[in-house]
Amino acid sequence: MKKLMERLKSMAGRKRVKTGGESAQSVVYITDTLLAETGRLIASFAEGRESEGVVYWFGFELGGRAVVTTLIVPDADTSHGCISTSPEANGEALGVIVGTPLVLLGQAHSHPGERVRHSPVDDRETFARFDGGLSVVIPHFARRGVDLSRCGVHRHVNGAFKFIRPERVGEHVVVVPGQADLRREQEGRIRKEKANVVS
What we know:
The structure is a single chain. By secondary structure, the chain is α/β, with parallel strands linked by helices. The protein has a single domain (about 1-199), classed as Cytidine Deaminase, domain 2, CATH 3.40.140. Helix content is about 25%, strand content about 25%. It has an eight-stranded mixed sheet with strand order 9-8-7-6-4-5-3-10, covered by helices on one side. The longest helix is centred in the first third of the chain and has 13 residues, at about 30-45. The N and C termini lie far apart (about 55 Å). The model is unreliable at about 5-20 (pLDDT under 50).
């Protein structure tokens, strides 16, 4: 377990290239389908009761770009309506990607109302506390889906989280298409497919 925790710590706390005294930060790309699934998973924490939720974003770093490929929901303690993850829960989440080229890129978590800036607890307890780590705060327990223009985007820079002004969010996180169905005559094709399934 000790070896695993050391390996996981090195994966989460990797160094980034510095330019001009400030850390270079990858632009993080996420598909609209993974962003929607992030919202669905986070909202599931609030089913039946008021509770924040959290999802970790893993993926590839490719030079100045990073691509989210994998969502992992840690075994978070939500007994008080807010999220708390133990070192063991975080280790278990990181353990899923051991042996892969995936790295932790950041996380998304929810707040109860419209306030989307980090609280002091978020600043202290957010798992993605490494240089360049991304933290997205989704309002209303993510029950209304995820619209980045209504979320709080934060980057970990020089040892602390920095709130990214809404007009600069696109310099840090970009939503790209996750799928597209460009078939024409789709309605007719669906009727045919249903008829074939029945017969």
